[in-house]
Amino acid sequence: MSVVTNTTTIGAIELPSRRNTELLLLAFAVVIPIFAYANVGLSIHGKLPPGMIAYGGGLAVLAGIAHLVVRRYAKYADPLLLPIGTLLNGLGCVLIWRLDQSERLQNLAKRQFGQFSESAPRQMMYTALAIALFAAVLLLLKDHRTLQRFTYISMAASLVLLILPVIPGLGADVFGAKIWISVAGFSIQPGEFAKIVIAIFFAGYLMVKRDALALASRRFMGLYLPRGRDLGPILMIWAMSLLVLVFENDLGTSLLFFGMFVIMLYVATERTSWIVIGLVMSVAGAAVVGATASHVKARVTAWLDPFACYTKSGACEQVGQSIMSFGSGGVLGTGWGQGNSDLIGFAANSDFIFSTVGEELGLAGVMAFLLLYGLIIERGVRTALAARDPFGKLFAIGLSGAFALQIFVVAGGVMGLIPLTGMTMPFLASGGSSVLANWALIGILIRISDTARRPAPAPAPSPDSEMTQVVRPS
């Protein structure tokens, strides 16, 4: 005896969106900076700061808006990227406000400029603009694959962004580095946005050329070396990075662009030889420019022995004070508001803000911040692995690689591991360009992760499959 039953086609199983998880993590990401803000006020002034409610409310509103946009327009996005970015940005505002309370920095500003203005309110304004840009990215960029159409346009745009700071009358020389432009009284760092634009070009170009770069090669001493004509792209990027280093005196942007290209090239071709070639070319270029460019040479000298030229060079003095800040912090730190990293001067809230973390939060705080940055990088790499299209894979790994390189060169510079680069710590340092660009980067990664995690649509029902016979033995 047998039983005949009717079954219908089963649709795609919907994955959990994890938006409630994101909301819960956002609550912690808002509460922790509020407690840090209160801790700084109690430590410096002996009472709760009067702006604590306004700061906490503002951060909560911005985080809530960002969450609602993600919930509506990127339902299946990674749930960790937004909370980690909010936590880092919130703690960055607290660190900047803590340095604003330094009487030494206030007196220094009054002596040089005649007045002192706090940086923390401006940073909150930049954060609001950055969240607006983050929302605009998710609203306007419905599918990251549309950016592939602008491969060569993005290359031209990135070159324009890099050239702008060296144009007379538009570019500004700040402490020897020509990486800023001044527009309507505001200073903008185009290189922060160029890293996103040039990643579009790298992803689009390597997606088309990866087979030629990977397969056409010769074996030499265990390495697969590319053909001469295939070396053209890496030679072009190497030359461009050297030009940035020479004309803008910007070691950080030069390392960032060339390193990002080598990472994406390795991922696209899976050839270790590209890593070796990239390292050799970067070391050779840095050695030549370091021996000829005075600004870069001063930073190399400060890196080799900052205390030998402590009283002769400003770069040596800053590096020496930064190293002493990390040393005095110990394992657990001196506590919020109890350090002396403000002795570094105006760079304390920008290039050297990580020194305040090392002194006041100690080794434990440094490792916590590096862990948060590492989680952003890990989620970006995971997004690249989950992406279903080659352009999305390369684009996500390029953005994650650029973010990782920036963390390495900034943290390594202020700790004395490598020469100073002049770049700013993402989400922590004072400045609008950095926070805007990095929130845009987070928005793009969220869009790619949403596309990667979104379940495939259910196939259209077929009349032939509506009725099937399932025979079960009695």
In words, what does this structure look like?
The protein has 474 residues and is mainly alpha-helical. It has a domain of 310 residues. Helices cover 64% and strands 6% of the residues. It has 16 helices and 7 strands. A 3-stranded antiparallel β-sheet has the order 2-3-4, with no helix packed on it. The protein has a two-stranded antiparallel ribbon with strand order 1-7. Helix 2 runs antiparallel to helix 3, helix 7 packs parallel to helix 9 and helix 9 runs antiparallel to helix 10. The longest helix has 27 residues. It is globular. The N terminus is likely disordered.
Secondary structure: elements and pairs:
Blueprint: E1 2-5, H1 19-45, H2 52-73, H3 81-100, H4 103-113, H5 120-140, H6 151-163, E2 171-174, E3 177-183, E4 186-188, H7 190-215, E5 217-220, E6 223-226, H8 232-248, H9 251-269, H10 272-292, H11 294-304, H12 314-329, H13 353-360, H14 362-386, H15 390-415, H16 432-453, E7 470-473
Antiparallel strand pairs: 1-7, 2-3, 3-4, 5-6
Helix pairs in contact: 1-2, 1-3, 2-3, 2-5, 3-5, 3-14, 3-16, 5-16, 6-7, 7-9, 7-15, 7-16, 8-9, 8-10, 9-10, 9-15, 10-11, 11-12, 12-13, 13-14, 14-15, 14-16, 15-16
Membrane topology: Multi-pass membrane protein
Main location: membrane
Region (Disordered): 453-474
